[in-house]
Amino acid sequence: MSRSTIQSVEQGLAQLGAPVQTDALPIAQPRNESELQAILALAAESEWRVLPCGLGSTWPLVHLPEFWDLGISTCGLEGDIQFDPGEGVLTAPAGTPWSQIQDVVEAQSGRIAPYQGLQPKGSLGGLVALGLSGPERSFVGALRHRVLGLRVMLADGSVARIGGKLVKNVTGFDLPRLWTGSRGSLGVILEASLRVAHAPAEQHLLRLRACDLTQAAHLCERFHAERIPCASLQWNETEEGAVQLEVWCIGSAGAMQDTLRLVRRCLDVDEHWTEEAAQQARAAWAGAWRLAPDADQLVIGCQPSEWPALAVALANDLDLLGIPYAVRALPGCAEARVRWPHLPDAVTPALQALQDGLEACHASWQWFGTHAMAGTFGPAPAPGLAWAQESLRRQFDPQGRFQPRPRA
Amino acid sequence: MPSPALAQDLRALLGPQGFLEAHPQRLSYESDALGLVAQVPEWVLLPSDTQQAAECMRLLAREGVCVVPRGAGTGLSGGATPVAGGVSVVTTRMRKILDIDPVNRLARVQAGVVNVELSRAAARHGLFYAPDPSSQMACTLGGNVAENSGGPHGFKYGQTSRHVRGLVWVDARGEIIDQSDARLDPVGLDVLGLWIGSEGMLGLVTEVVLDLLPSPEVSESMLAIFGSLQAACEAVTELIASGLQPSAIEILDKLTIDAVEASVFAAGYPKDAEAVMLMDLDGSPAEVRELGEQLETILKAHGSRELRRATDPEQRRRLWAGRKGAYGAMGRLAPDLYVADVVAPRTRLAEIVALSTAICAELGLPCANVFHAGDGNLHPNISYDRRDADQVRRVLLAGQRIMAACVERGGTLTGEHGVGLEKRDAMCMVFRDEDLAVQERVRQALDPGRRMNPGKMLPVRGCREMRTRSPYLPGMKEYDA
Q1: Which of A76, A123, A148, A235 has the highest Cβ tally under 10 A?
Q2: Contact B189 A198 (CB under 8 A)
């Protein structure tokens, strides 16, 4: 797409919403659904490739005009956050900042698991579109099990409601499951309803300092074998180069009494915080991840039995890439995240070796970054599954409006 | 009508045990547990593994024959009702537990394994499979996947979809889609998630990989006895609002108690109670002790006149026998039972239970309530005699009115039985034409020939037209008019 075309796009968009100009690509911010429909009509007419986004927190990863012609942010679509603690259901516009949702829920004795997108400043819709489940996944379930219903806009501008707003519901196909994690490839999420839990009576954070990744993997194995019901286990290396393991426990006073006893049987804890202090310590630690938050990321998932092998694969293969990296591991839910400032734009032998290592651990992995959005890296689905996915994608987006432009 | 040549090929593939063509043999497959709608299938095919199932499907695709997948036939929404000129493909010969991996807490099973058999096998490793529909002694895990079944313990542990880690399924063309690698997250679009609860309209499931959970250290049951159903429902609303989480909260009303106590499932529920609430508490010792005390406080505040706690397995089994046997016990009231399945907002439980009972009373029908109170999943049960056409008409009318009342108050049509035939036309109460069109796209993508379980779940015409035309089930015409 030429620069002159971008200029005319901006003029067209200016009449609709408030376009935000980035260095490389215009982002439209429609103020209501009619404007969004008009933008999609314009996109259809001009045969643009469109990337839905929420607050643009992952924008630095995906704004290359090589793949897209236009970004559409949902942050201008306003609406109230509806939260009914009695029902345990929250509904909000897709562009609502996640932090705002957490505030509303916590103010009414609710608790929404810290589902982490790639950045702490994401939106509800962006989080659902990414489908990442966060550190408490093994305790509270994956995000896709908490999405009850969505309102969505398809490429042709039609609006549909899928799922519902009840904690139990099997009325029709489970389309919210299909849309969760679809990364905007099916359409624009307008609104989402999530199941929300009650705030736990107690919260505890236990920290073990100077714990390396292999040690963390073995501790995880032990926790798993002894069935210790902690909410999450996280291993991190901080900006200062320190490595540590954190154990997060939440629940009723009775449950905590028994859980803490089990945890202390497995490890000599260096630090123990409770309640507000535990939350603060955890939040501080979450922000201490080395490397910029807009770095390319690799999110890996594997079975608990494969964790030690994965730790070895990461330790051996990451250095071969010759690029600085940072690792955060969530062995409690068998997940690891790796960050790079920027990956090479082709699959190098070292990168291939890493992917082979992951495949050997029967791991699943997803790339988040410029190349991932263009479908460059990632495990190939089985042929039958690829057919099913492509058939579904074509039904929802027959013109390929939400698909990245294939590489030249 | 499928050709004789096709019959010959299928007979050769499946043998006499896997290919049923004699009318008496096919007759027992004419309906599922809904019973109100019946259609004898042209043939009944019982493949014994994935490869055989795929070969069957390829042969059927050759002649464009419609296929109705079926597990044990325990479904209550007519989802496995055969279609005229079509065949039923039944999974009950695929009943091997292929693997239990206690380290990763996974089980790989064939689709025809009966739900309770997996729990028994898992128990040897100190594990259990959480979804436990009332029909768990008979229903198959493949059927549970197709319907996204729940059960009493779904309140804490979630429905089937939360526990499925992988699937092998065969599509309408006979292609095997293997998603059994049990990855934590889907690679690309979550087709597996979409497939669960698709009611046999996207293909035939042949193998399932399921999550198993560690058996709790302590499990107890608690029975709360109430002088009014309303008070029991209000207690549930409060205990949910308080954030308490027993693993199951079930309510049985007076009519159900009477039927249970007069049957072989007698559990010792007091006959003068208007309602009983049955709960399971599980977790660590201190957790269960604390939860029990908190529950007691709320239950007593809402007028529970007596609380009984069962800690030993035999006592617990007896208390649950009444709940699990409730549907069977209702056979004492009349030869047939219509089990409704709606979901109410949990804050309006008492109101909708009272409404359901009033709707039935107005139509001169008995209504026994036994339901998953924690999820707001109501099962008003109407005993009737299907030989009486007027009773059938009134039963269906009551079902429609209960659904409408529930939807008007923010509820929905089904929590665990599925839409099937029974609720297909009622989908218009919940979804607009535009919403249903989006669901139709799924079908178009994965079964463009519309051969998999045709006529189920999705209204066949636009809702506007549907509302003015005679619907599939008898009795609904009068309601719509």
Answers
A1: A123
A2: no
